[in-house]
Design goal:
Layout (H helix, E strand, L loop, with lengths): L1 E5 L12 E8 L8 H15 L5 E7 L5 E9 L3 H14 L9 H7 L9 E8 L8 H9 L7 E7 L5 H11 L2 E5 L2 H13 L6 E5 L6 E6 L2 E6 L4 E5 L4 E5 L11 H13 L3 H11 L2 H8 L4 H16 L22 H10 L3 E2 L15 E3 L5 E4 L6 E8 L6 E12 L9 E14 L2 E2 L3 E7 H4 L7 E7 L2 E7 L8 H6 L2 H24 L11 H7 L1 H9 L2 E2 L2 E2 L4 E3 L5 E11 L8 H15 L11 H13 L4 H31 L9 E7 L5 E14 L1
Parallel strand pairs: 2-3, 2-5, 5-6, 6-7
Antiparallel strand pairs: 1-12, 3-4, 8-11, 9-10, 9-12, 13-16, 13-20, 14-25, 15-17, 16-17, 17-18, 18-19, 20-22, 21-22, 23-24, 26-28, 27-28
């Protein structure tokens, strides 16, 4: 049900009040890159966007117990006083610590504001509260209604806790606004101050079945909760719309009202209602945006487009109207492109101006000057050897190698340097967020022919080689087809196959007769430098499989955020026992049961799987076993990709099995061997 309530006759406001603006700014470590610009912007703008009689209060915060008032109730019409504030802003808005919401909010409620003015609070954050639980935070926020006339929460960047900030805004009938970065933040902040509500609130009776009401106020779209059939809105509001999500589209609605409901559905993450609105609208541009919108980036872009369409008719149907518009479920994804590039032996050009990579892990800090790896100047590009998928988070990295030499400290072997290589992971997608916008690569002209369905620009071609830049900024991370294929049965099969392959590989390694020497770290080093030198090189991180410096420490933690992970547990498969011990145990059981006897020992499920694979590999030659082992590598990569599809769909795709947070099912290994599989979505802290 969707009802329109006209409020024109209830309007009582004759004058607009001055405002007490309260700005709570996050200065946690993760804000370090943008805080200088935010400081300067704040100094330039506060006296410009506010009205002459407005006051301004600034509060900084980071972790638990780390917050304070920079200045309070400063009259913005007093230019001399405003100039004195600049030094205070520079002093206190400095990056430090973690992130905690409760202390600064409580602090903001203790300040004595001018009672003749309306209190407008704005809170900026780019992170997750890592000091308090959600229930306490929401309770603290609910108490804000008695102090503040209007409240806005600005979500800065893609790693803030969107779900919590949305609930905080809902608690107080406030605004939750997303700012991708500093440029967008400038406008958001200015609009929030200049567009502050300057009239009293009134209570309005609405449909008791309604969950929310939605209304436009200036350039803002506000969603407020319905409590006991009443909502609180500014007294100069012209119209409000009550929404009963279950049957909101039971009657035919105008395009204007459909866009409002579409915005409501997007903000409340009601996927089913979004699609119903899009079907009724037939807005081709909106359909194209939403059909592959799964990550925060993509959903934010969609929400912004809908918001513009609500406020401006010219933003509607920009690509025409088609009531039979069918989403392309098979749109090429970033992962498809990465897989194709890896298979094409492409090389990543990390020295290119198009490579806008941002490090995602803490810097490793060497405790000594040497040994030190020096990249070879002869290797300009980095081979894309393989992709690395995370088994629990929607992360994808490119595994690369870089040749060079390791400069050595003084030693008795008179070695000044030795040739080696390093491996590096470039994280392309972290927790569903694209970490780069472009991929500059070099590959063969023939290989390029298989990649024409991706968006790229050829920069240079010569001698059968092509230097091309692939634009992934608008490319979806996952598509609807991959989402549809991820059923409970599919996930179970993938995890079952991964478990079976792990057992099989361990048995294969046991039977391979041509395994490397026991000290596999330094076999080639021994041949080249001798046993003693090889052992010393190994002790400082120079080994056959590359250089990895020992004695390094992680850089200081500047902040942390909460990431959602898929956790799966297969009962009885937490570890695989030793193969020789298992086969010996089976022989002992057979011996005890010979001639009708009975053994006290039994084989558990994993041990039975080991014996099953052992029987199939017994008697094979080393070459046959090696072939099976090589084939298993490709099988493992394929299964890792399939598991990644599951992780991306379940974490990013707003998809789950059943109503409970924990899903339990049975996986069948053989006709007689089965066990329990448990899937859970959990929040984990990631330090950055």
């Amino acid at each position: 049900m969707f009802e329109v309530i006209q409020l024109g006759d209830m309007k009582t406001a004759t004058t607009k009040s001055a405002a007490n603006h309260i700005y709570i700014a996050d200065v946690s470590g993760s804000m370090y890159a943008d805080l200088p610009k935010i400081r300067q912007h704040l100094k330039n703008i506060i006296s410009v966007v506010a009205q002459p009689e407005d006051t301004f209060t600034l509060i900084w915060f980071s972790g638990k117990g780390q917050c304070g008032v920079v200045f309070e109730n400063v009259l913005l019409s007093d230019l001399n006083t405003v100039q004195l504030l600049h030094a205070a802003i520079d002093k206190w808005l400095r990056p430090m610590g973690m992130t905690g919401f409760i202390d600064p909010i409580n602090l903001s409620k203790t300040i004595a504001y001018d009672p003749t003015k309306l209190n407008n609070l704005v809170m900026l954050t780019d992170g997750y509260d890592n000091t308090s639980n959600r229930a306490d935070i929401l309770k603290t926020v609910a108490d804000m209604k008695s102090v503040f006339h209007s409240v806005t929460f600005i979500e800065y960047g893609y790693y803030a806790d969107r779900e919590l900030l949305a609930k905080m805004a809902e608690q107080v009938g406030g605004l939750h606004i997303f700012a991708e970065g500093y440029t967008q933040y400038e406008k958001v902040f200015s609009d929030t101050i200049s567009g502050a509500i300057r009239v009293n609130n009134i209570s309005v009776d609405v449909n008791k079945k309604a969950k929310h009401c939605i209304f436009t106020y200036g350039t803002q779209i506000r969603i407020v909760p319905v409590i006991d059939g009443k909502v609180t809105v500014p007294e100069d509001t012209q119209k409000i719309y009550s929404v009963v999500p279950k049957d909101v589209l039971s009657k035919q609605l105008s395009a204007e009202h459909l866009y409002l409901v579409l915005y409501y559905a997007a903000k409340t993450e009601n996927d089913e209602l979004v699609w119903k609105c899009l079907e009724a609208l037939g807005d081709v541009a909106m359909v194209e945006l939403y059909q592959n919108a799964f990550t925060k980036q993509e959903l934010s872009t969609f929400e912004s487009a809908v918001e513009r369409a609500v406020l401006n008719e010219r933003e509607r149907f920009v690509k025409g109207r088609d009531l039979s518009a069918v989403p392309d479920k098979n749109a090429p994804t970033v992962i498809d492109l990465l897989s194709s590039l890896a298979a094409s032996n492409a090389e990543l050009v990390t020295s290119s101006e198009y490579w806008d990579y941002e490090k995602t892990s803490r810097e490793r800090v060497a405790t000594e000057d040497l040994p030190k790896f020096v990249p070879s100047p002869m290797q300009a590009n980095v081979p894309l050897h393989s992709l690395v998928y995370n088994s629990s988070r929607p992360n994808v990295s490119i595994l690369t190698t870089r040749d060079g030499v390791v400069q050595l400290p003084e030693n008795k072997f008179r070695l000044k340097s030795v040739p080696s290589f390093i491996t590096r992971n470039y994280t392309i997608i972290r927790d569903g967020i694209k970490n780069v916008s472009k991929l500059p690569v070099v590959l063969g002209e023939m290989q390029m022919l298989a990649l024409t369905h991706f968006d790229f620009e050829v920069i240079h071609s010569d001698n059968g080689k092509v230097f091309a830049v692939f634009d992934i900024s608008k490319m979806p991370v996952i598509n609807r087809r991959s989402l549809e294929q991820v059923t409970a049965e599919y996930v179970s099969r993938v995890i079952r196959d991964i478990q079976m392959l792990a057992v099989s590989n361990k048995v294969l390694k046991f039977y391979l007769k041509n395994q490397m020497a026991e000290n596999s770290k330094t076999v080639k080093m021994v041949e080249k430098y001798g046993v003693d030198a090889a052992e010393w090189l190994s002790s400082i991180g120079v080994r056959d499989y590359g250089f990895n410096a020992v004695g390094t420490t992680s850089g200081e933690v500047s902040d942390e955020y909460q990431a959602i992970e898929l956790e799966y547990k297969v009962k009885g498969m937490s570890s695989i026992p030793a193969i020789d011990a298992t086969l010996k145990k089976r022989d002992e059981i057979k011996a005890a049961e010979k001639d009708g006897g009975k053994s006290k020992k039994t084989l558990n499920m994993v041990e039975q799987l080991i014996c099953m694979h052992a029987d199939s590999y017994m008697g094979l030659s080393n070459d046959e076993l090696q072939t099976l082992s090589n084939n298993a590598i490709n099988t493992k990569r394929a299964l890792e990709r399939r598991l990644a599809d599951c992780v991306f769909a379940l974490i990013l795709g707003r998809k789950w099995f059943g109503d409970d947070e924990v899903y339990t099912t049975t996986i069948q290994f053989t006709n007689s061997l089965s066990t329990e599989l448990t899937l859970t979505k959990v929040r984990k802290t990631v330090k950055i």
